[in-house]
tRNA(His) guanylyltransferase
Amino acid sequence: MNNDTFEARLRALEYYHDLKIVPGAWVVLRVDGRGFSRFTQERFDKPFDDRFNRLMVTTAQALLEEFQGVYAYTESDEISVLFPPSWTMFDREVEKLVSLSAATASATFTLACGERATFDSRVWIGVTEQDVLDYFRWRQSDATRCALNGWAYWTLRQEGASVAEATRTLESQTTAFKNELLYQRGINFNELPAWQRRGVGLYWETYDKEGMNPLTGQRVLAQRRRIKVDRDLPMKDEYSAFLQTRLRLLEPLIREDKR
Ligand SMILES: Nc1nc2c(ncn2[C@@H]2O[C@H](COP(=O)(O)OP(=O)(O)OP(=O)(O)O)[C@@H](O)[C@H]2O)c(=O)[nH]1
Ligand SMILES: [Mg+2]
């Protein structure tokens, strides 16, 4: 067998390497902490820990920067990063994007936390802008549902209920029941910090930075970009409207890339 045939035969077995995200689709990369139920157990306050959330925000920031996303959203142990249809990083190769986003999240979180933690990653694709709004509404309602469950569960546990008792009390119960359970114990769910109930959004904002023209010595204003961390996101229809405004801001960029 000559070298070329040998090389071609083995390279062809990198079977999934040619797999690319369909052109023209919106993309979300979602990373999720591996085994974080266990990882968080002894290290962080239940049901929510501000320090844990800040580690997730630091990780989301790194993903947004590294992959040049347009919006990131984090809740619980997951982070979703949105990319416009025109995004072409790594030629949209699935293996590259999935492995590098998981690697970036794992390395960033581990360095910030000081303990080894790993993330998995997956790709979501959306055909229309409405799909994108629906996606983030879906993740946000997951955040709200988990926050209510978590608060109800850990409140019962702190009262001395066993795992089985707390689970049984909440099994198949309505949202109203869980809200009432908390209310009777002096916790108004709607007054808990917004980041716990609605998640945290990250996006680019522009600001004017004053500098000096080295040639003329004159003061000049330059536009710079920075990441805004929004811990007070709106919810439901207001969240969709908020996201829609952010997507509209991207339109010139998307049109330009299509030309
Ligand atoms: N203590 C604590 N735990 C948290 C916090 N935020 C998220 N978690 C936990 O992170 C876990 C995330 O759940 P999952 O991603 O479904 O479970 P997992 O154990 O990570 O499992 P895989 O993702 O399948 O590997 C839940 O058990 C949450 O309670 C927090 O602020 N504090
Ligand atoms: Mg997880």
